[in-house]
Amino acid sequence: MEKIRKKLWGNNYYDPKSKKWFKDSSNEEGEPLKRAFSAFVMEPIIKLTRSIMDGNMDQMNKIIASIGISLNSDEKALTGRNS
């Protein structure tokens, strides 16, 4: 866990094709790479948030299941803003 934590901060880039880490923002073929923090933390959060906001419950359920979150039926029934 400590190794991945160090990779998430700073100028660290991960190439999902080659499954290698880089300090430069491009891989060996010159293709641009995303920063590790963006790829592994921010993008999943944004994807989950957008699926909730757009009402895409299938995608939302798939994402929360993949990260090990379980909602009970009352929580699943909550939609919109509760005032």
Strand content: 5-15%
The CATH topology annotation reads as: Yeast translation eEF2 (G' domain)
Low-confidence stretches: none
Rg, Cα atoms, Å: 17 Å
Distance between the termini: 39 Å
Q: Provide the CATH superfamily.
A: Yeast translation eEF2 (G' domain)
Which helices and strands, and how do they pair?
Layout: H1 2-8, E1 13-15, E2 20-22, H2 36-53, H3 57-66, H4 73-77
Antiparallel strand pairs: 1-2
Helix pairs in contact: 2-3
Polypeptide structure, described:
By secondary structure, the chain is mainly alpha-helical. It has a single domain (2-70), classed as Yeast translation eEF2 (G' domain) (Alpha-Beta Complex), CATH 3.90.1430.10. 48% of the residues lie in helices and 7% in strands. The chain is built from 4 helices and 2 strands, in the order H-E-E-H-H-H. The protein has helices spanning 2-8, 36-53, 57-66, 73-77; strands at 13-15, 20-22. Strands 1-2 form a two-stranded antiparallel sheet. The longest helix has 18 residues, at 36-53. It is elongated and about 50 Å long.
Summarize the structure.
The protein has four helices and two strands, in the order αββααα.
Features:
mainly alpha; two-stranded antiparallel ribbon; 83 residues; elongated; 4 helices; Yeast translation eEF2 (G' domain)
